[in-house]
Each structure stands twice: as structure tokens, then as C-alpha cells.
Design brief:
With about 200 residues, the chain is an alpha/beta fold. It has 6 helices and 9 strands; from the N terminus they run E-H-E-H-E-H-E-H-H-E-H-E-E-E-E. The strands form 3 sheets. It has a 5-stranded parallel β-sheet with strand order 1-2-3-4-5, with helices on one face. The protein has a two-stranded antiparallel sheet with strand order 6-7. Helix 3 links the parallel strand 3 and strand 4.
């Protein structure tokens, strides 16, 4: 990465407040781009206390505009990590972007897929906030011959109609079928109890 590289440290909401503060303060001299999800998402009010105790930039997401409003307006976070599909579409996402713009916070959606990434590129082009896309598995997919345009680490708005996404149903295959509730992205503790990560 070198001295010019930026990095993000994701705590995944696995730490209690004391450990989150300790680790964030240990990371401060390394100048992380931000510390992500230092406490669990259902503990969003703790960001007021956390902001007083750490100096690193903070980011959180997986919450809607109502939950994020206080965090953004009071500058308790530096980046809202929200995704278009989780927020209810582009209109709801633009409302969060407007809050971020008014209170000098950035947006950084984690990639949920090429279609939502294409939509997030359009939102980024329509707002004036710092915008950092987190994309995993970038590249072409046979069922999506056109989605977002990625060149040299940057994503660009394209000239194609709508979001610029083309879908080829002949190339799509069934990956999985959910017939009953399961873990749904969470994690099981050794004692069998459920935790959000």
C-alpha cells in the first residue's frame, strides 16, 4: 500500500464501546480513511460518546434516513455507508445525500451488485458530497453485458439510456433458492445464539 495508500478498518460491530475506543485510538497514528461500524448498528446513539473519545473519521451504515439523520446532522459520523437497495431506491438515497451535503458528510455504499452500483454512480454525479464506492468483484458478467463503466479505478456515468444496464436473460442461471429462513448474513456464536455479524 505504501505511505500514500488509504485504508479502511471495519470493526464489523463486533466490539463493545471500550474496545472500540481503544482500537480506534491505536489506529489514529496510522491515519485510516475511516473506522467502519465501531459499534453494533442497533447502538447508533453510542456514536455521540464515541465521537467525544476518538479522533479518527467514523463511518456507519445499514440504517435508514431517520436513523442516520441525527448522526449526520450532529456530525457524529463522517461517512454514511448506505446502499440504494436497502434505502428504498434512488429517491430515498438522494434524501440521505442531501443531508450529507448540508452537514459535510460523505457517502460510501458497499457494492450490492452491478445494477445498484450503476444507480449509485448516477447519484454520485448528481450530488456534491465526497463519494467513495466500495466495489467487490468488479468485472463483466455474462447476464449483464453492460452495467457500470469502470476505468482505472474510477466509475463513470455512461451514455446508455436509464441506468445504462443491459440484461441478457439467456445468460442468467439460478444460483440459489431460499425456501426457509436462515442465517441471512449474520453469525452464530459458539453457544448457538445469534449475533448481527
Amino acid at each position: 500500500m505504501g505511505e500514500e495508500g488509504d485504508f479502511i478498518c471495519d470493526f464489523h460491530g463486533k466490539l463493545d464501546m471500550a474496545d472500540a475506543v481503544t482500537l480506534a485510538n491505536m489506529l489514529e497514528p496510522l491515519r485510516p480513511y475511516w473506522v467502519e461500524d465501531p459499534v453494533r448498528n442497533e447502538a447508533l446513539p453510542l456514536y455521540r460518546t464515541l465521537r467525544e473519545r476518538v479522533k479518527v473519521p467514523l463511518a456507519t451504515g445499514n440504517a435508514g434516513k431517520v436513523e442516520l439523520r441525527e448522526l449526520i446532522e450532529e456530525q457524529l459520523i463522517d461517512y454514511a455507508r448506505v446502499r440504494i437497495p436497502n434505502e428504498g431506491g434512488i429517491t430515498e438515497y438522494m434524501k440521505i445525500a442531501a443531508m450529507c451535503e448540508m452537514h459535510f458528510a460523505g457517502l460510501s455504499p458497499e457494492g450490492t451488485g452491478p445494477i445498484s452500483t450503476a444507480a449509485e454512480v448516477h447519484v454520485a454525479a448528481a450530488t456534491n458530497v465526497p463519494f467513495l464506492l466500495q466495489i467487490s468483484g468488479a468485472g463483466t458478467r455474462p447476464y449483464l453485458p453492460q452495467s457500470y463503466d469502470l476505468r482505472q479505478g474510477k466509475v463513470y456515468v455512461n451514455e446508455r439510456p436509464g441506468l445504462g444496464v443491459e440484461f441478457d436473460p439467456k445468460e442468467a442461471t439460478l444460483i440459489t433458492e431460499v425456501t426457509q429462513p436462515g442465517n441471512l448474513g449474520g453469525m452464530w456464536r459458539p453457544d448457538g445464539s445469534y449475533t448481527n455479524w
